[in-house]
Amino acid sequence: MVALHEGRAIHGYAVRREIGLCDDVFETTLLDMYYKCGGIGLAASVFAKMDARKTTNVGSWNTLIAAYLQNGQAFEAFDLFRQMICRNVLPDLVTLANAILCYGELNYFRRGMSIHGYMITMGAELDLVASTALVDLYCKIDVTKARKLFERLGNKDAVVYNVMMTGYLENELPADAVNVFREKLKTNVSPNVALFLNLIPAVLNLRDIILVRSIHGYALRHTHISHVEIANQIIHTYAKYGYVVDARVVFHRMRTRDLVSWTSMMTSYIYHGHIDEAINLFLIDFFHGNELSVNNSLITTYAKSGKLHMARSIFEQMTELCLTSWNAMIGAYAMHGNYTDVLELFDHMKIAKVTPDEVTFTSILTACSHSGLVEEGGIQSGQKRVGNTEEVMAIVHDLITKNLVNLIADQGEMQRQHKLLILYATQTGNALDAAERLARETELPTIQRISPKLQPVT
Fold this sequence. Notes:
Flavodoxin-like domain-containing protein; TPR-like_helical_dom_sf; 0% strand; single chain; 74% helix; mainly alpha
């Protein structure tokens, strides 16, 4: 749209300055610019003014016919070609090539073949554009004849290879389409996006997983895997074969995804019985995958239901991570006592240069305390990992107090004053005082072992 706007501005400037008026070369260039920028209506308007002034030439006719074909308006292209012949404008090879493409699109096969006959009668030396148009036409009439034309071509480009492969696919001959691709590999012709888009459906019909992996690797080496449509095709192919993990790897590595990407991956999950993954993917897609609060809530929700793998999957798919995201995932592991994963994630958090807060420290220390209880040094181990700041020490003593409460509850009946001491420690935050007094007044070995490990809050 920007290019079209700038092109119109230049055109307007030329009109105001009376530059290029009645110049067929300048106006043909305008035609070309407008249709390439998507302004087919503006191109037609320029052509109509040229036609009214009798300044059209074969180049301007060719440009507008090609514009209509590129825009999927084959009938308008055919009508323009008919007008051109009625005006006694002598067509050139470009005109005839466009006419053949036009007749092929409209299934006017006899007319297309008559143009081919005209070329032969005139002894015209076909260029690659005209030859490609003929291959495309005969693919729709008789693919064997198309193949003969294809083989007679000297220098082939990626376009004619694409046309031949498409012809075989449309005639339900996928093996022949793959063979054309193999022939191309022996040449110096570089593959383009269209070539892969034709190749992958052919492989899907052959049900050859080894060939699929080969094409996937080839696409990776030629960086075409970054193209959304190619990646979507590979996801679809892997999913059809039942290789969901491979499909998921391709999906996660995509830098950009469209509706087809999400739909293909969700369909793959559902078809192969991975309902949770499909729901997860749907929720991320529904909220566009970049709503931090939604993703963070999903992590917590899955963690509470015991589906840590789903929580981690969401975490890894998030394109943007905030402190809350890290806390949600660390908290998820801490909730289930997975202290190893907690510490590993905390290390990644530090590498990402995200500053932890009280919630982070609490989750880490809680996980460590659950891993070995207080008397086995779990909290002290976690304390070494996160540091000895005043904030951390306060959390440590709070956790020890809570563990003391749990320990006493586990010992059965205790004297009422012992419980009051714990209440006092909880209210004042002085776990050291409570532990020392309990150690003096009770014979419980667990309480006596805890006391020497505590440090006063300063």
